Amino acid sequence: MAPVKGKLYQRLLFLVVFLPISGVLCFSELFFIKEPHDVTAMRKEAVILDCQAHGESPIDVRWLKNGVKVLENDRVYRLSNGSLFISEVESRRGDKSDEGLYQCLAQNKYGAILSQKARLTIASISAFTIQPTSIAVTEGSVARFACKISAHPPCIITWEFNRVSLPLATERITVLPSGVLQIHGVQRKDAGNYRCITTNIASRRRSIEASLTVTPAPRPPLPQRPRIIVGPQNISVSLHQNAILECMATGNPRPILSWSRADSKSIDVYSTKVLGNGNLIITDIKPQHGGVYMCRATTPGTRNFTVSSANITVLAPPSLVEWPESLTRPRAGTARFVCQAEGVPTPQITWFKNGEKVHSNGRFKMYNSKLVINQIIPEDDAIYQCQAENEQGSVLSMARLIVVMSEDRPSAPRNIRADTVSSSAILLAWDRPQFNADKVIAYSVHYMKAEGLNNEEYQVVIGNDTTRYIIDDLEPARNYTFYVVAYMPMGASRMSDNVFQHTLEDVPLRAPELSLTSRSPMDIQVSWQPLPDKLSRGRVSAYRLSYRTSAESTVSQLELPGEKTQHLLENLQPDTIYLLRIVAATSIGWGEQSAWTSHRTPKLSSARVPMAPELHLEPLNCTTILARWQLSPRNSASVQGYRLFYHEESQSERAPLQLRALDNTYTIGGLDPRKKYHVKLLAYNFVGEGYQADQTVSTTGCVSVRDRLVPPPPPPHNVYIKSNSSSSVFLRWSRPAFTSSQTINYTVRCNPVGLQNASLVLYLQTNEQNLLVRNLEPNTKYEFAIRLHIDQLSSPWSPVVYHSTLPDAPTLPPSNVKVTLIEEDTALVSWKNPDEPNVAVTHYTILYASRNAWLAGEWQVLQREGTITMALLEKLKPGQIYFVKVSASNNMGDGPFSLTVELKVLADLSSGHDPRLSRGNTHSTAFSDGFYHLDQKSMTGITVGVCIALICIIICAFIIVCRGKNRKFSAFKAYREGAGTSGTSAAAAGQLGSEGQTESADVSVPMLSPNHFIDAKGGTNLIINSLGPVQPSTEKKEKWFSFSSNAKKDSKALQIVRPRLLPARLHPC
Fold it and tell me: How many other C-beta atoms can be found within 10 angstroms of the C-beta atom of residue 69?
């Protein structure tokens, strides 16, 4: 009794200690037990969208439809468990329809979380998008009708011929699930009217009727090369759905259709089948099924063929590769959440804070799939969710940020003020905190643009000896927002109040870039793009356009209002080079003028030359510009090609690039960053060069925007992995090159590749630079990543390293072992892989032996690679019984052998019986496996038994010979006594001969005789029972009929005894 009480106390102590710890280690303050799923409903039907949240009470559940709160009423309301009930689904137009995406939002004191999205669809059938059309075909060819409709849920499509339903598949007619009707070998009786019927739970629709007209084929039929009349089409198929590739061909003789992959990979025979006369259908499609498939139509017996191909794209819903982790951070610290997903198409990542979308602005930054929160404040304590979404679905993962605050932190700085100093500087001033001001060691000034989204927040740290600071790197004519934070050794204060201030305008930093074209020999169309805010430094109030000829020094000037972006210069001289430049102004004054840009006006001629192309230049990066153009709609002249000129401003013009008439884009590379380039394009024909288009463009800078955030520590590197066993892996890594006297801890993340359940990710903590990860699955590919933690900072994850655990030795034998005699001395052994997951097989071992060799323990050995599941047993001896068994092996060891399968090879195959028969006898297998490991005593006993049996056989043979001599003597004597008794003696001799034949007959595996047949579709007149085919015996019945009834009884008794003697062949007496 005492041990029982001790165990009870141990369990109670375990619960008391473990339960509080589990609450700390696992984030379980709020999560969903049930989430809504997609549903399709009939109109006026009741629908329930499940939602059940678990966590600390009270929990408030709300519902959103397309991101907007659902207004409850008598028809739509929330149940007590949080689910949404719609008593009658409505399908009205606009916002009154109940169709849409629904989400439930659960909230308690820790925060709020969103459920996955569920789509409510009302069952419907729309109008036909494709209907069958009437066709006329020749007799013996192929006919095809198509039918397509959009419906929810998808329709079942059937066909009618003259208003009578057609079967889905016959020898000549095939109905594809996609709605296509195919008729091969068209006959005159196929002529008539066809229509398709579409049905789902919503309704049924009938298409219009289309007639099929059959015309006589020419006699004799003319030979035709194979031609694919309907080939496969590129399709995108969702994961686990079915893909159908249609292929129809015609020709004389009728072509043979075959399928292959363009990448030479084998087609998955387990998920793929041919439907009808050449259509390929792939069921339960998986990512490995994606690729290019080729349908080949070949004329039998020739090399004439044609090919048509199509690509299958497998669409996959998002699955998370890396999940955000819950974090604990101090005030004014930095939190980083990582979320990576994969899917087809590529998923989009969206972040939510307590159910509301997070925008990249100020302290919140989103870099690709990462969410970074700088200068953490108490209001950032919340639940954050990462949503990966594509058109195939969405997946959510959540993590919590806990903000830790010091009790004796200073209060926020007071009375913050901002004064504009210039177009790029603002003076910021503040008062010291009211409480604990003596503990302040530094201030941080934060500022960012006040307008727009995705603005970068900047931070400047200054000492505690001043409360004034000038920010002098601002942009002119911009509004900014500022706040200040006070720091102490144990943490930071709250943010001060925000203050807004704007900088003054300044003169434009740069002039606009000009684009010049001519519409006639006496004008120039001047256009330009408005300056961006960074360059205008205020509102542009005016432009000044200057121009002159290259031969004159007199400059003409025009002032244009700031709203204009183009101007036409008229009454110019033909075939003259003009120089033009422009300058912009704000209320402060004029900016810098652009460099002179040259343009030649066209010649004054009646010849028809191409008009100036419409040129557009776009900087792709700091060294590349993309030029795009198109001919003017007013151009009527022919074009033989284009000439493209470009050079850096103030540099000489280079030789032109010759481009084809079909070209409309060109990428100009190898340029210098932050330079202005002049680009000229013109078209030409046999008359001469056409009007030119001139434009200037500036390349961008290659220097990235400086990151003023405190960088995190670098991640560990040189990660080394080695598999110790089938369930453990050893990891070793190097510490990054930085010096620190503080303790460094490491987190190791481990999960199988492709894992979709975030709760199964394994996180292990250690302060060493190595770790043995245990309890892994054998022969499974895992991904590992490591990060370090120091002084409340965490490094990014190291690059992911992939490694597979070693496989286990097989513990089960191969399954479904079969042996089939395919020739007189050759048998085929086939089997399936062992029925155990995550076990690799490198090779198979096949043991086989005749009965005599098996009794002696002598087996013949064959080995095959692990990818092969069949083998040939050759040079088998007639009249022998063979035993076969198979085992699976890998580098870790050998598995057990399968049960022994028995095969009989006949001595005489002339009787017409089928030799292709294998038998697996589980009763005989039990002891046959044991004979493979015989000891000396057992072998002696077997030898003595065999000798006794041989002696008995010799004695029996001697007795039979003696009796035979006596019968011959009696028969000779009876013959001499008279001819009257000769018939009786002959009958007796015949009966004896028949009996002797029956006694000596062997139980054999029959082969097909010439009297039997098997047609091409599997039909046969052969009768098969449990022992094999039954031989028809009409002649024998007539022969036996002339005998007495006793002979019949003896014959029947003999036939009954023969099957019973079959198992005894393993135990000869």
Answer: 10
Task: List the CATH code of the domain at 414-502.
Answer: 2.60.40.10
Give the SS3 label for residue 845.
strand
Q: What is the pLDDT of residues 226-256, one digit of tens each?
A: 989 899 999 999 988 899 999 999 888 889 9
Cβ(487)–Cβ(444) under 8 Å? Answer: yes
What is the distance between the alpha carbons of residues 192 and 675, in angstroms, rounded to a whole number? 74
pLDDT in tens, 89-108: 887 766 678 888 999 999 99
CA-based radius of gyration for the chain: 45
Averaged pLDDT score across all residues of the chain: 79
Give per-residue pLDDT as tens, 5-33: 444 444 434 333 333 333 333 445 788 98
Q: pLDDT over 90 for what percent of the chain?
A: 23
Between CA 576 and CA 165 the distance in angstroms is 81
Whether residue 1 has pLDDT greater than 50? no
- Please tell me the total number of residues recorded for the chain in this structure: 1069
**Helices (H), ranges, 893-1033:** 922-931, 936-977, 982-1000
> In terms of C-beta distances under 8 Å and separation of at least 24 residues, what long-range contacts does 217-220 make, across chains too?
217/138, 217/139, 217/140, 217/141, 218/138
**Distance of alpha carbon 950 from alpha carbon 953, whole angstroms:** 5
Domain spanning 818-905 has what CATH number?
2.60.40.10
Nearest to 172 by CA among 140, 218, 194: 140
Identify the burial level of 420 via C-beta atoms within 10 angstroms of its C-beta, where 0-12 means exposed, 13-18 middle and 19 or more buried: middle
Residue 253: name the closest of 140, 127, 385, 366 by CA: 140
Residue 485 pairs in a beta bridge with 444
Q: Are the CB atoms for 645 and 651 separated by under 8 Å?
A: no
Q: For residues 761 and 748, what is the distance between their CA atoms, to the nearest angstrom?
A: 10
| Predicted confidence (pLDDT) per residue in 254-288, tens digit | 899 999 998 888 888 888 888 888 899 999 899 89
The CATH superfamily assigned to 323-404 is: Immunoglobulins (2.60.40.10)
Which amino acid, 276?
Answer: G
The CATH label, of 3.40.640.10, 3.10.20.310, 2.60.40.10, 2.40.50.100, for the domain at 506-605 is 2.60.40.10
Q: Which residue has the higher pLDDT, 977 or 437?
A: 437
pLDDT of residue 49: 92
Indicate where the chain has its CATH 2.60.40.10 domain(s). 31-122, 126-316, 323-404, 414-502, 506-605, 621-630+641-701, 717-804, 818-905
Is this prediction's pTM over 0.70? no
Question: Closest by alpha carbon to 278, among 315, 311, 250?
Answer: 250
Tokens, residue 166? 């057609």
Strand partners, 334: none
Q: Which CATH number is associated with domain 717-804? A: 2.60.40.10
